[in-house]
Amino acid sequence: MKNLQDLLGFEAMMQTGVNFGIKILQIVGTLVLCWLFIRISSSVAQKFFKKQTEKQRLAMPDRKAKTLSSISSSVLKYVIYFVGLFTILNLLGVDSKSLLVIASAGSVAIGLGAQSVVTDMLEGFFIFFEDHYAVGDIVTIQNITGTVEGVSLRYTKIRDPQGRMHIIPNGSVGIVTNLCNDFINAIVTVGIAYNEDIDRVLSILENEMQQTSDMDSILETPVVVGVVGLDDSAVNIRIVAKCKIKTNFAVEAELRKRIKNRLDREGVEIPFPQRTVHIVQQKEA
């Protein structure tokens, strides 16, 4: 009789182990499926919006279509997370009433301790629908200037000129300076010596700016603003050129080169810091 009880107990333990193993496999399978669905949905969303934009079926610029694709992928990801979580809880034997209780508790938690998450998501929608910025734009957010590489429901990714990636919660974005609305100004400041004839130099610079028509990135003839500062060793003159977005750095570099070469040809002195060193020799006692 005892052997029979031991056998039945062993079979029950084996059955429990098998059931537990099946549960584990089902949970792992659910997680794998969620991961696959996220990857597939993200890829499908990107291809869909790209195709629709190429065929001009979407009445929006390419940069906004990329942003919509990014946000859609983010929404799908959270939906899949939600479905996966409830599936796993159901596999663990949590009934529907308990799931509703958990959902209610989750709502309370959101109201009390996860307000920032909700704020981030709401701001994500506002950023897109009010077109504050989009993927590919050059923006300044919280004193960080760079290119927007991604916009999701919760955060914005910005890569600065040094290649560093900044991840900013949408709820913390605040004031945004978008440098990609139609055009951007290239600004160059050049210093000349105090003994130079300012009017002559201004005339030379204006003539040089008239010869920039070969620069495709410049939208209008650069404007010589005039004297903008009197430094310790130089009179500073500023030139402003309206150019295509994302070309301002290249335009500034080219203008500096042309200005330097022209001023050299005209014999205009560009001052630079100099220091006189006096060597004092001590007399031998």
Quickly list its features:
Helix Hairpins; 285 residues; SH3 type barrels; single chain; Alpha-Beta Plaits; 3-stranded antiparallel β-sheet; alpha+beta
CATH topology of the largest domain: Helix Hairpins
Find the count of extended strands (DSSP E, 2+ residues): 8
User: Low-confidence runs (pLDDT<50, min 5 residues)?
Assistant: none
The strand order across the widest sheet is 4-3-2-1-5
Radius of gyration: 33 Å
Which architecture name of the largest domain does CATH use? Answer: Orthogonal Bundle
Please give the count of helices. Answer: 6
Query: Which CATH class of the largest domain is shown?
Result: Mainly Alpha
Q: Into how many domains do the coordinates divide?
A: 3
The class by helix and strand makeup works out as alpha+beta
Helix and strand sequence: HHHHEEEEEEHEEH
GO cellular component, one term: plasma membrane
Subcellular location: Cell membrane
Membrane topology: Multi-pass membrane protein
Protein name: Putative MscS family protein YkuT
Written description of the protein model:
It is a single chain. The chain has 285 residues and is an alpha+beta fold. The chain has helices spanning 2-54, 62-91, 96-113, 115-129, 198-209, 248-265; strands at 138-141, 144-151, 155-159, 165-169, 176-178, 184-192, 223-230, 235-243. Helix 1 (2-54) runs antiparallel to helix 2 and helix 3 crosses helix 4 (115-129). The longest helix has 53 residues, at 2-54. The mean pLDDT is 78. The chain folds into three domains: 8-113, Helix Hairpins (Orthogonal Bundle), CATH 1.10.287; 129-178, SH3 type barrels (Roll), CATH 2.30.30; 184-265, Alpha-Beta Plaits (2-Layer Sandwich). The termini are far apart. It is 51% helix and 18% strand. The strands form two sheets. It has a five-stranded antiparallel β-sheet with strand order 4-3-2-1-5. Strands 6-8-7 form a three-stranded antiparallel β-sheet, covered by helices on one side. The protein is built from six helices and eight strands. It is elongated, with a radius of gyration of 33 Å.
